[in-house]
Amino acid sequence: MSFYEKRILPHVINCACGSPAVARQREKVVPSARGRVLELGIGTGLNAKHYRAEAVTEVIGVDPSRESWALARAKIAHAAVPIEYCEASAEDIPLESDSIDTAVITYTLLHNSRSAQGVSRGGACAAAWWSGVGGRTCAGAG
Ligand SMILES: C[S@@+](CC[C@H](N)C(=O)[O-])C[C@H]1O[C@@H](n2cnc3c(N)ncnc32)[C@H](O)[C@@H]1O
Q1: What domains are there in the chain, each with its CATH number?
Q2: Which residues contact 63 (CB under 8 A, 6 or more apart)?
């Protein structure tokens, strides 16, 4: 990982993905999460405040970037649900099969719904992503 990827990019992402327009897309999908949640690419924890205590028992946030997680700590501390960090990659998640009720993926993994479907076999999925044209943000759950 380059210096830029390690030290600079997490701050850039925290800013760019923290805009009000993006927060509105998060609000459309993240509150639909239920039960034990796997958040793929949790990044700097920008979804944390959108989880509902009455619906979610715990969130496991997978991300290979410890630096991003360091920026997430304050947001996690104020979340209504317990959120645990798992330093791992989406290609190799150290969890049992069928142990997750909802997969949440926002602005991660090619940013499209196809990759979201791939990780949500048999479960629910809430996703938000950038569309290719004009940087529009999209959201969906199901
Ligand atoms: C654009 S950021 C989005 C962060 C967060 N999902 C959000 O909505 O603010 C993409 C995140 O995906 C993470 N990421 C990149 N490759 C990954 C992989 N193979 N598995 C899991 N997360 C990955 C990055 O470290 C980064 O935190």
Answers
A1: 3-141 (3.40.50.150)
A2: 40, 41, 42, 43, 69, 85, 86, 87, 88
